[in-house]
Design a protein that fits this description.
- The chain is an alpha/beta fold.
- The protein has helices at residues 2-15, 43-52, 63-80, 104-107, 109-116, 124-131, 135-146, 150-155, 159-165, 171-184, 220-235, and strands at residues 37-39, 55-59, 89-98, 167-169, 188-193.
- The longest helix is centred in the N-terminal third of the chain and has 18 residues, at 63-80.
């Protein structure tokens, strides 16, 4: 233990007062406490955010999931803490392919497949699709992925599921969806431009190893255009 203390002594002297017996970062707290935002999709984490945090960032949540799961869970958490949600930042983010027409729906199908099958990342992704009425579609897509047929899985994604699960298509369509989310209780929507037609594993073993040769080549110029379109079309 003495050897450990001796090794840590320079760190202790650099970051803490001389009287410090153990290394730690000494710093003054900001005059205004920082706001705490929790990333959450599952019910328990959403309730926890409502109980202790100042905001939430969800991901890939259908309108129905926000209305019937997220907002009620936030209210339950707030009630448990005896607080209100006044000033609380309830936000959700989405993959996005914004286009001048509705061709973005087709170009975002890979993103829908990717998240609908990423149960090792967040089981709530599947629950979100079920809440929107696409449970059977998501199960069929997952079966194709498990069978190693990624392209077939993408082909099973209906346009209506894309419209319900991500932000895709014309700016007019996307603005309408954002407004419906605000009406459901959100006060913010995050739009993350995604590579058109792209998809990729979100974690190890997401896709079977033998299927990885089917992954489309990453379209970096297309991703740049996706960002430019989102800025130009949604910002106009």
């Amino acid at each position: 233990m003495d050897a450990v203390r001796e090794a840590h002594a320079p760190i202790c002297r650099a970051f803490t007062p001389p009287s410090c017996p153990e290394p730690h970062l000494a710093m003054e707290l900001p005059p205004t406490p920082p706001r705490i935002t929790i990333a959450a999709n599952g019910v328990r984490m959403i309730e926890l955010a409502g109980e202790i945090a100042d905001g939430i960032v969800g991901w890939y949540q259908s309108l129905e999931y926000v209305r019937d799961v997220t907002m009620p869970a936030l209210r339950r958490g707030a009630e448990r803490a005896g607080r209100s949600l006044e000033g609380f930042d309830a936000t959700v983010g989405f993959p996005a392919v914004i286009t001048r027409d509705d061709s973005g729906l087709e170009l975002a199908k890979g993103q829908v497949m990717m998240y609908a099958t990423a149960l090792g990342s967040a089981p709530a992704y599947l629950e979100s699709a079920r809440a929107a009425g696409f449970g059977e579609d998501a199960e069929a897509i997952g079966e194709r992925v498990r069978a190693g047929d990624l392209r077939g899985a993408v082909n099973l994604v209906p346009d209506e599921m894309v419209d319900a699960m991500v932000m895709a298509g014309s700016a007019e369509r996307v603005r309408g969806r954002i407004e419906r989310y605000r009406e459901a209780g959100l006060n913010g929507v995050h739009v993350l431009p995604s590579p058109p037609g792209g998809y990729y594993p979100l974690y190890e073993d997401h896709f079977p190893v033998e299927s990885l040769s089917q992954l489309p080549e990453f379209d970096f110029p297309g991703l740049i255009r996706s960002f430019e379109n989102a800025i130009e079309l949604l910002g106009s």
